[in-house]
Amino acid sequence: MDFKYLLIACLILFLFSRKKKIENLVSSISGKVIKGDGTSRNYGYSTANMKLKKPMECGVFNGMSQYGKTTILSNGTNYVECHIHDFNKDIYGKTLKIKNIDYIDENDKYKDCLWAKQWI
Fold this sequence. Notes:
This protein is of the alpha+beta class. It is built from two helices and six strands, in the order H-E-E-E-E-E-E-H. A hairpin with a 4-residue loop joins strand 4 (about 70-75) and strand 5 (about 80-85).
């Protein structure tokens, strides 16, 4: 009988923690595009860098900006790098809005976070 209650308690804790993680993920971000240090350009990827009002969860995400599909790198701070696919225009100083944000792969989010911290 005690095992049954322990199992139910664990299930409730798991579901609660899962709900909390989903709630913490923002669905959209926006900010003014600022000059970065050029690190990603050395690897052949231009990025639109933004400083957000609130920190974004660490990881690698996909979303949709007004310019097209966008991959977002976040190191867990309020600074993010956004690669806009098939886009090569100067948008410094303009507002970039990205919506429908989701992890590239939920299972790899911790690995992605370590990678993002090294990258940014």
